[in-house]
């Protein structure tokens, strides 16, 4: 079994759902966008791209890896 790629050179080649950005984002295209890949050999992965380069590369994450990343961003109670 071969390892899945960590990125793709062009996000336009993905069979993904709609690209979404944070509700905290302004309309100035200075954020990241995410999309769930729903078909093909990469189905089930999450793609992340720079909103300024919508046809550019996208990083690929498993759902568990992305959730772990988001969990580290949450403030801790101290």
TrEMBL record:
Residue stretches making up the DUF397 domain: 19-73
Q: Name one Pfam family in it.
A: DUF397
InterPro entries given in the database record: DUF397
Taxonomic superkingdom: Bacteria
Record protein name field: DUF397 domain-containing protein
